[in-house]
Amino acid sequence: MSLNRRQFLQYAGALGALGALGSQAALAQVLNPQRMQPWRNWSGVQTCLPAQQITPKSLGELVSVIAQSTGTIRPVGAGHSFSPLVPTDDTLLSLGYFGGMLSHDSETHQAEFGAGTSMALMGMALNDVGQGFINMADIDHQTLGGAVATSTHGTGIKYGSYSSYIKGLQLVTASGEVLDCDATRNPEVFHAARVSMGSLGVITKLTMQNRPGYRLRETMWVAKTEDLLADIDKHVSENQHWEMLVITHSDYALAIALNETEEPATPPVNKAESGGNEFVTLLEKLDKYGSDFPSARRFLLNNLRHFATFDERIGESYEIYSNVRSVRFNEMEYSVPAEHGPACLREILQLIERNDLPTWFPLEYRYVQADDVPLSMFQGRDSCAISVHQHYSMDYHNLFAAIEPIFWKYDGRPHWGKLHTLNARHLEKLYPQWREFTGLRESLDPQGRFLNAHLRSILGA
């Protein structure tokens, strides 16, 4: 069968029935008729029943909402964060009307977007004006504001996160003040707000540094994980963007390389005719019936490479970067110093195998360039980002709890949008400018109006 990266990522499991919050919603309506709209994130692991969900239509209306509301205000994007950044009993604030390209500059290759813009729409909009992202994550469902707030990233040792390419932003503070920020206007606020988890106020628009539009060639191959790690320096230096998806309980991984090309685009893949569903079903059954026979499972997984081939794809950059994630999961991700990536991954794989930990999603292994953003996971160091996934219908707590201490051993910094257990006491030691950020946050929002329980814990407020 012939598979592309999108279909390979979908092998992670069966498509279960969608979870629901019906009983919670019904109870909430009885107790408080105003709480009519429960909220949950994409995976279903985070939920809340806010007193109000507001979608202001203009900057003036947004300022009024902040001034008139009481209690906690939490901006909400596409709900693609797994950590509890959004949940509150008070006010959820959507920037759904703050979307689209607002301006662009063909000479500097910069473009300004509303913070509520879906990143799935940005690639095409940039392409229409001759621009393209410098780098892009492999999921494009997030809003721009949410992706920047959590330092979301793609892969490539010479490429930073979205936050590192922000050149300007507008922030509405707890007092209702509107601050236009860049390297010269309110530079201290700008410096910190590029990764702030919505704790400094509400970002309404952002200016992003881009580049001329371009095409990418995607090349994939299956190889032994140890062979890929042995040649890791070669892979990351000879490819603009390189990553691997390590198949747990096996000896193999899928390597993915993206490189710029001027060759014409290949025809789009028809997923309905590609055989992807057949591959999903096969791996689904292996997990269901093979987990009691680890040796047989490893043998079968190792030999699945004989059943799949991967065709090269060429297309506009935004089409190649992004993937369809139709199977829901929960995720933990840490970034460790780049030089420790292979050792950290090996320990995780050894632990999974030694304890026969129940997981069948691939581990995602990527590289990200250092930046200077105070609360970026990549502040001051080139990093290796390692992601651990668990199907949304399976309990993730034991798996993540077993693996997380390995990340700590290598001074790992958790992805702000992914699940982790660290609080301010631990996090302060990982970020040299931690106190400067928290001091600025307190000066902008002394009453903590933009902090929910999770943010109070991780920021020490």
Automatic annotation (TrEMBL):
PROSITE patterns: FAD_PCMH, TAT. Residues 46-213 form the FAD-binding PCMH-type domain. Residues 1-28 form the signal peptide. The keyword Electron transport does not apply. InterPro entries: ALO_C (IPR007173), FAD-bd_PCMH (IPR016166), FAD-bd_PCMH-like_sf (IPR036318), FAD-bd_PCMH_sub1 (IPR016167), FAD-bd_PCMH_sub2 (IPR016169), FAD_lactone_oxidase-like (IPR010031), Oxid_FAD_bind_N (IPR006094), TAT_signal (IPR006311). Pfam families: ALO, FAD_binding_4, TAT_signal. It comes from the Bacteria. Keywords: FAD, Flavoprotein, Oxidoreductase, Signal. NCBIfam families: bact_FAD_ox, TAT_signal_seq. This is D-arabinono-1,4-lactone oxidase. It comes from Marinobacter xiaoshiensis.
